[in-house]
Design goal:
Elements: E1 2-3, E2 14-19, E3 22-27, H1 39-54
Antiparallel strand pairs: 1-2, 2-3
Length: 67
C-alpha cells in the first residue's frame, strides 16, 4: 500500500490498495477511484484527487473586495 506521506492533524491521506490484479486509490475523506490494472494510474488518480479536492483554497478572490 502506498500513501501520501506524513500528514498533519485534520488532513486527508490517499493510499492505493491492491486486490487481485487491480489497484484502487482511496482517501481518508471517503473518496475512492476506479479499479485499475496499472498501479501508476491508480497513483495518478490519488494525486489528481488530492490536488483537486484537498489543496488549500487560500487564493485571493477579487469578487469579495469592497471599495
Amino acid at each position: 500500500m502506498l500513501d501520501s506521506g506524513d500528514i498533519g492533524h485534520g488532513q486527508d491521506r490517499t493510499t492505493t490498495v491492491e486486490k487481485g490484479s487491480f489497484s484502487t486509490a482511496r482517501c481518508t475523506c471517503g473518496w475512492y477511484g476506479p479499479a485499475r490494472r496499472a498501479r501508476g494510474v491508480a497513483r495518478d488518480d490519488a494525486a489528481a484527487h488530492a490536488t483537486a479536492r484537498h489543496s488549500p483554497s487560500d487564493t485571493s478572490d477579487s469578487s469579495d473586495s469592497s471599495d
